Amino acid sequence: MEIMLFHSALGLRPAVHDAADRLRGAGHSVRVPDLFEGQTAETMDEGLAIKDRTGADELLRRAVAAAAPHSDLGLVYAGFSLGASVAQNLALGDEKARGLLLLQGTSDIAQGAAVDDLPVQLHVADPDVFEPHDWLTAWYLGMRRTGADVEIFRYPGVGHLYTDPAFEDYDEEAAERTWLLSLAFLDDITAEQA
């Protein structure tokens, strides 16, 4: 499976490389573009400031430039938080996308977006300040209207970036469950499209 994995607002930190290595260890080919061009952050506020300085349009341009040379392979788009929103935008615009794995983030759904049973899996803290319940309900219904096949896994009592071992939100049990379910999701996509 070819996976394009996008980092969170904290930038391309060791946790993202560790996640990519975990996916590679399961037999997948993984690319991890650096949308912040070398900048990283220690706090969410610092990361959001980098995101704002860069601008949403430029971040999306960088993501498209990173994915475009590989899109003919049939990518699974994946990402953490901000990177999940980027991954969602790319997957909904790529007719060859094979799947969408969202870790701690979603995005607005483009008007008229349509996919053919695109497998989508979301893992999110419950509650999550960046992904409130009302938003997630509307997002789920919107994604279903696009034709996506969506499943959501919620993790009560954890922080937003609970899969990042170097961040204050880290929760080992929730992170391991997330990876177990994510790898099974990727295996299912591989089996269905083999």
Largest sheet: 6 strands, parallel
Helical percent range? 40-55%
Order of helices and strands: EHEHHEHEEHEH
Q: Please report the first level of CATH classification, the CATH class.
A: Alpha Beta
Describe the fold and architecture.
The chain is of the alpha/beta class. It has one domain: Rossmann fold (3-Layer(aba) Sandwich), CATH 3.40.50.1820. The chain is 42% helix and 18% strand. It contains six helices and six strands. The chain has helices at residues 14-25, 44-54, 56-67, 82-93, 133-146, 172-192, and strands spanning 2-6, 29-31, 75-80, 99-103, 119-126, 149-156. Strands 2-1-3-4-5-6 form a six-stranded parallel sheet, sandwiched between helices. The termini are close together. The model has no long low-confidence stretch (mean pLDDT 96).
Provide a concise account of the structure shown:
The protein contains six helices and six strands, in the order βαβααβαββαβα.
